[in-house]
Amino acid sequence: MQTGIRAIGDTETLEKVIDPQARVSIRRQCELLGVNRSNVYYQPVPEDPEDLELMRLMDEEFLGHPNKGVLSMVDFIKTLGILVGPKRVRRLLRKMGIMAIYPQKNLSKLGIAKYIHPYVLRGLEITRSNQVWCIDLTYIPMKRGFLYLTAIIDVYSRYIVGWGLFNTLDAENTLGVLKECKQEQEVQ
Questions:
Q1: Helical pair 49-64 and 86-96, crossing angle rounded to 10 deg
Q2: pLDDT for 113-170, tens place per residue?
Q3: Does the pLDDT of residue 109 top 80, yes or no?
Q4: Residue 142: inside a domain
Q5: How many structural domains is the chain composed of?
Q6: Domain containing 59: what range?
Q7: Centroid of chain to Cα 153
Q8: In whole angstroms, what is the distance from residue 149 CA to residue 168 CA?
Q9: CA–CA separation, 48 vs 66, rounded Å?
Q10: CA distance 124 to 94
Q11: Is 56 inside a domain boundary?
């Protein structure tokens, strides 16, 4: 099992830790940290513009027909005159986090008990602002990828208490927006 920086596998962290201008060579720094030098020099390859266009087309089609799976998407793209195979479509759909909506097996069975939480708002009468907030996460398709919008909404007044726009869907982003809203409400 890897420990330390090796477990992170984050090239940005490596760039901060490894200093090319240091007296110790990059080879020795990598050796001391227990990482490969290829991780230091790695430059991520951007997504192909043709794939981005395919992703945009599939996203638009999925918004209208959320029950379309891989094979239906392949047929849709072929009707547009673009030759594409199911492996490529499956990869792009996975990259976008899109899955077709269809009935699953055993829907009425309960899940793992440790993940079942009681609905604490049942029977609660919401009578004032800032009593209950809700969080809405949505994605916005852009020309070259996606942006993720996090909005915190007051349930009583439906007022947007706070929001944030991010290029990744990380929990830290949502928590940051929530903390900012909480601090603003404490000040008022």
A1: 80
A2: 777 788 888 989 999 998 999 999 998 988 888 899 999 999 999 999 999 999 888 8
A3: no
A4: yes
A5: 3
A6: 49-96
A7: 20
A8: 10
A9: 25
A10: 39
A11: yes
